[in-house]
Design goal:
There is one protein chain. With about 280 residues, this protein is α+β, with helices and mostly antiparallel strands. The protein has nine helices and nine strands. The protein has a five-stranded antiparallel beta sheet with strand order 5-6-4-8-7. It has a four-stranded antiparallel beta sheet with strand order 2-1-3-9. A hairpin with a 3-residue loop joins β1 (about 20-25) and β2 (about 30). α6 runs antiparallel to α7 and α7 crosses α9 (about 265-280). It is elongated and about 65 Å long.
């Protein structure tokens, strides 16, 4: 894609519509911190989920510098950055959005076959799929796919085409499933866990779906002891459905997504799942 002409004008237009913006230099990357803020010597931001500059008036802290304040965008402290800027970046999470960055033709094809349709923007090598809603950002959730939302920036490449639809569970699950194997990651359940040869009584989809829905509800409604609740819920699900081969990665992703929404980390979800399997001898 070509460089953005008059990036400051584009930034002001986006800011007026509620999109937090920042200048990007050659290489499509943010400007480095000033001397005062180098290596976060200034302490960084106290609230890293809110877009905007730190006390330094310059374009510091990458995505956290993104702002909708026109006075900041045209300020003298940003002027030098705009003169060198080649395009405009924005903070998707600050605008209530999630960008699924598809960086290869194969990734685009996968998205078209897997994800709900939404607003799309062409990029140099692929497409940005933009959904309404926010989540944790994560790189390399699968080959050629990054997720940019909270605490991340994306390059503005135009408004795109199509309606912006709600962020689906299928996208949230990408950050949970951790497709690249790492220590402590849960065992994939695409290959069924067979029992002792007895016929599975869970083949009726409604039975399993109801069980998963009840488990998700139990995690979501936890008001305390979330860590223990997640483990007990995983244990209950596996004790009922873990030996017959019914559970799939999609079911596991729903459980992990609910746990992460309550503040559990992906690592804890993986450990709790593994511990529950070990307890049950699965």
């Amino acid at each position: 894609m070509s460089e953005t002409p008059y990036p400051q004008h584009t930034a002001l237009s986006l800011a007026a519509s509620g999109v937090p913006v920042l200048p990007l230099r050659r290489g499509k990357i943010p400007f480095g911190n000033c001397t005062t803020c180098t290596d976060n010597a200034c302490g960084g931001r106290s609230n890293m989920k809110t877009p905007g500059p730190c006390r330094c008036p310059g374009v510091c802290h990458a995505w956290a510098a993104a702002t909708t304040d026109p006075a900041v965008i045209v300020s003298p402290s940003w002027a030098a950055a705009w003169r060198r800027a080649v395009c405009v970046g924005y903070h998707p999470g600050g605008a209530g959005l999630t960008v699924v960055d598809l960086d290869t033709p194969a990734a685009v094809q996968w998205a078209r076959e897997t994800l709900p349709a939404t607003r799309t923007v062409p990029t140099t090598r692929g497409e940005h799929w933009i959904y309404q809603g926010t989540m944790a950002s994560s790189n390399a959730v699968r080959p050629g796919v990054d997720i940019k939302s909270l605490m991340a920036y994306a390059r503005w490449l135009g408004p795109g085409v199509g309606a912006t639809n709600a962020l689906p569970d299928a996208v949230r699950a990408l950050a949970v499933k951790e497709p690249y194997t790492s220590r402590g990651a849960p065992q994939a359940l695409s290959v069924p866990l067979r029992g002792r040869g007895s016929e599975c009584r869970h083949r009726t989809p409604a039975y399993l779906d109801r069980g998963i829905a009840m488990a998700v509800e139990g995690i979501t409604e936890a008001r305390s002891a979330v860590h223990a609740t997640v483990y007990r819920t995983f244990l209950a699900v596996l004790s009922t459905h873990g030996r017959c081969g019914c559970l799939t990665d999609t079911h596991v992703a729903r459980l992990f997504t609910a746990a992460q929404a309550k503040g559990e980390s992906p690592r804890h979800c993986a450990d709790a799942w593994t511990n529950a399997r070990t307890t049950l001898g699965l």
